[in-house]
TrEMBL record:
Spans through the membrane: none
Protein name per Swiss-Prot or TrEMBL: DUF433 domain-containing protein
Alphabetical list of InterPro entries matching this protein: DUF433, Homeodomain-like_sf, WH-like_DNA-bd_sf
Species this protein is from: Rubrobacter marinus
Domain of life: Bacteria
One protein family per Pfam: DUF433
Coiled coil feature spans: none
Length: 76
């Protein structure tokens, strides 16, 4: 699975914000938790349905968006 295939966007889920596939966990939520000092392990404990690769995909997606690369994500 491509790293970015883990990130999806659906206008009917979380207002169309990019989310980890099949969940309502937004990229912004993951970034906010990391920015607040939470470790990946803590995030995975709080959201047991996520995988480490999901957290890393969220970081990768955000980094690419900040660099203004056009990133196509899979519709949910």
């Amino acid at each position: 699975m491509s790293e970015l295939a883990r990130i999806t966007r659906n206008p009917e889920v979380m207002g169309g914000k990019p989310c980890v596939r099949g969940t309502r966990v937004t990229v912004g939520t993951i970034l906010g938790l990391l920015a607040d000092g939470h470790e990946e392990k803590e995030i995975l404990e709080a959201y047991p349905y996520l995988e480490l690769e999901d957290v890393r995909a969220a970081l990768s997606y955000a980094a690419r968006r900040l660099e203004e690369f056009e990133v196509e994500i899979v519709p949910a």
